[in-house]
Amino acid sequence: MKEVYYMSKDQNTVYVGSKPAMSYVLAVITSYNSSGTKNVTLKARGRSMKTAVDVAEIVKRRFIKDLKANKITIGTEELPQQEGGTRNVSTMEIILTRA
Amino acid sequence: MKEVYYMSKDQNTVYVGSKPAMSYVLAVITSYNSSGTKNVTLKARGRSMKTAVDVAEIVKRRFIKDLKANKITIGTEELPQQEGGTRNVSTMEIILTRA
Fold first, then answer.
1. Are A58 and B39 in contact (CB under 8 A)?
2. Interface pTM (ipTM) of the complex?
3. Which distant-in-sequence residues (6+ apart) come within 8 Å of B88 by Cβ?
4. CB-closest option in A47, A50, A74 to B72
């Protein structure tokens, strides 16, 4: 995930890693509340993809009822290995949209 | 996942569990080859969601180049617990469509 992301009022991104889901749930809610944005994007790869789905579902069911997981895309990234060569890792992006 | 699925020529479903991704890759390819269908659906929940994304990406990149992960939906299922109460588990469905 080395692309450059342009952060604007309408586009907030939360990178999901190995912390508990609730940390990212908080990040999503904070993002909505502080910026007044309609869209928050969750990005994850590998094992963290499970957490990203959990986060989307928890925010939707418990906190922001009018939220939708509007667009979900998957892909593959090639990670260079220390011992040479590359390893493929799956990636996932979930765009959450508030009505 | 206790719904009833109607298997028809156009709708094949592969349930992704805890086996290695390649087992499910094989199931998807077999499904396409044996039925001549255009759509194969991957269903997974919890940790297996990572495997489902891996399977979709491997089939697309290595085996069937004209494949698209056409529609991805996520949801939550309530699993009854032995000790009473329920536990929520995230679910995912990836519809693979061949051009």
1. no
2. 0.83
3. A57, A61, B76, B77, B78, B79
4. A74
> How does pLDDT run along chain B (99 residues), one tens digit per residue?
444 444 444 458 999 999 999 999 999 999 998 888 899 999 999 999 999 999 999 999 999 999 988 899 999 999 898 888 899 999 999 999 998
For residue A91, give how far its alpha carbon lies from the nearest alpha carbon of chain B (Å).
8
CA dihedral sign of residues A58, A93, A90, A25: negative
Q: Say yes or no: B7 contacts chain A, CB-CB below 8 A.
A: no
Chain B residues 51-70 within an 8 A CB cutoff of chain A: 53-54, 56-57, 61, 69
- As a residue count, chain B comes to 99
